[in-house]
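Problem 12. The chain below contains 391 residues. Write out its predicted structure in token notation.
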Amino acid sequence: MSSALLFVGLAAAAFVGFNVGGSSTGVAWGPAVGAGVTKKTTAAALMSVFVLLGGWTVGRNVVETLGSGIVAPSAFTLEASIVVLAFIGLGMAVANGYGVPISTSMTAVGAIAGLGIATHTLDWAVLGEIVVWWLVAPVAGFWCGAVVGRYLYVRLQRAVAIEQSDGALVVLDRSGALPVPALGPGTTPREVASTALVVVVACYMSFSAGASNVANAVAPLVGGGLLDPGPAVVLAAAAIGVGAFTIARRTMASVGSELTDLPLLAAMVVTVVAATITTAASWLGIPISLALSTVMTIVGLGWGRASRTATAADLARGDVEGGVSVSAVAVGADDGVSEIGGAPDDDLGDAAALFDSSTVARFVSFWILGPSAATVLSYLAFSALPVAGTP
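Solution.
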């Protein structure tokens, strides 16, 4: 094995991990950053730690699926692994350039599937199982968000009453012999507790991102026996961390501000639902899209909040007076929101203010184009280049 070629393979894996960091950090921390809970630099640091933890534990199952489940491991020669990683990395780099949190897992599966089709080693049953999860996950995210938004959100908001004060959350009290942490001006204990809870939930989502996405950077190298799982996870996590501190700043702003203006409670609901779906799938070894689950949970939460003015029968008939505006996700519990089936509110606001449909369309377009292009280009490349192994 050429050491120079192996270095290229490792560099390709690092390049993919770098772009994973740019995409997944935006999905995991965009809601918290958009809600003003934490700074982008702090989010990147926490993302790096929990990605490593998720990849080292649950993520090994996904590495096994991508490295030996979709195609025969013998297909992953060093040259073939480099080509697959190049398609994954370039596709993600283009999406990150547009500030879109592309589905890393879907792009990786597409590139590997193209290799399998070209070499006649693709396991269609495994691919079919993965695709079923791809369809179920965003639907589950939407309806979980919708149910919470329609039936539970108002009660949760009244019970939790998460509000942010101006100024620092915690300051150093230097009045004594030693500086000690103290609540900032106007900060309440409830605000500190609720903010800490949002950060914990975002860390959970970072864990789920590592569980799902570490494999996308290194599975071809592990599948071909070119790299052991342990060092591979560390390499991917380090590269993701670099991406989190650099190119992720744009995707965090994209998810946190362009898609919807999430208050703290909404950010917490979104991260819990999306991270749970992703972690459960990763535990089963399914490479799942964290981006799809997250964005569709946001959409479902807003839809559920706005649909409170209609009864279940009205929704079934599509008879919703004035339409449904997902901008209701930011309406407070005491802002006069109607009970289920009550009179329509005038306070739901303009949908464009908190939900940009063109942004969602841009996201969905890249989710479809990314893996499709990766599959086609990978197939054409491996059909023309005799670099893949034989069964």
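Discussion. The beta strands are 170-173, 180-183. Students who got a different answer should revisit the alignment rule from Section 12.3.
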